[in-house]
Amino acid sequence: MATTRMIADILRNHSRNNKRSKSILRQAPTRAKINKIQLRRVLLYSHCRLRSEPEPRTMVHAAKPRSSPPPRYSTFPGPDNHARTDPSNERTPLNSQTTRRPKCSYTLKIMIGLLLFIAFTWHLVDDYSNTHRTDVQERIRHREELERLKRIEFEDTQRKLAHEREDEERRLSFEEEDRRRKEEILRDEARREDKAIELEKARRKLAHMKEDEQRRLAHEKEDRSRREERERQDKEIEHEDEQRRRAHEEEDKRRKAEKEKEDRIIRARKSAVARREQTIQAKEDAMREDEERRNRAGLIWQDLTPEKRCLSYEKRMYQAKLINIPYGEDAQSWCMKTAIDIHGVTYDHPDFCTKERQDDAVSIVGHWTVTSNEPTCKTWWGNHKKKGCYGSRKMRVEAHLFNHQAPWDNWAEMCFSTPSEFDRKSFAHPDTCENNRMFGTAGTWFIDVDESECP
């Protein structure tokens, strides 16, 4: 059974190898196929024969020298038709004779083993040869491919080297040509530069010669001009000295004359101041004497009377008679020098004085213009009303004049002199005035307003 199992494993491995190397066996020669067929026939024959001939049990024991020894109990059945297990009841000992192994079966096993060894060896050799043949073909193809690639690479390298060599030769030729051209250009430039340098040197030399000549001429001219300038300056200095000397002499004469004139003016001023002081002193003495005479005379204003009409806003004329004037004095002068007290305000003198004759008597009358504490002359505006726009950004406003003392007061004078306040603005007088006997005097103002009120 073990031999059969071994042969089956060999056949299975061989068939598996045959499947793996199927493509290779197709290309193998015909003799290898014939040998393979013969080997299969021998193996089948030996396998069939082994299955038809059973092996004896003694042979198996002989094949296994390390098997267990035979049992010591009896192998014959007992009365109950069962094998005995008790060795003490065994009466018949075991047969000590050994069976001989047939020589033909041993030779057959050896032959089968040799055949198996030959088959296994042939299988290994065949498998190795097939694998080696495949590897060799692969290596040959790989080598041919490598050789072809190397040949292509070598051709490319040769072509590349040829192109590089050609490019290098062309580049060297171009460089050589450029070098020769540059050398020629440099030589031409050097020649031109040498010529230019020579021309520049000659031009500079000529320029230096001209410059030296010009400098020499300029120096000569400058020296000549300096000498002339020095001579002219010397003459000017002499002339200035002479003029300064003459000017000093004239200045001395002028100062002397001015000093004499100032002395005369000072003397004249002193005499004028003395005369003025004498005049002022005389006037002061006269005024003092006049003041003393007026005080001694006791001059007073009598019958202070206001006029009925007002001149304008808070303005009224007053008049009074000056009495106690001594005979032979200047009444007009004494009138203009006499003070008066009106409504608590002191007036040093009247505005003017007049002479009035009454009952063959001449009296001196003084006149004053009073501008305070005159309630009857204090008019005001009321009932302001807007009368619409008057042109661009102008508003017409009207108001009535109150406290007008008609018919004595002049409505026009009172209207144009009365101030007013409207819309937080102050106005010294109205723009126009109108008088209506029924409604009184009215004033009109044209005030500036915003564009929103009068566009």
UniProtKB/TrEMBL annotation:
Keywords: Membrane, Transmembrane, Transmembrane helix. Residues 90-99 have a biased composition (Polar residues). The chain crosses the membrane at residues 106-125. Residues 55-101, 205-289 are annotated as: Disordered. This is Uncharacterized protein. Residues 208-266, 274-289 have a biased composition (Basic and acidic residues).
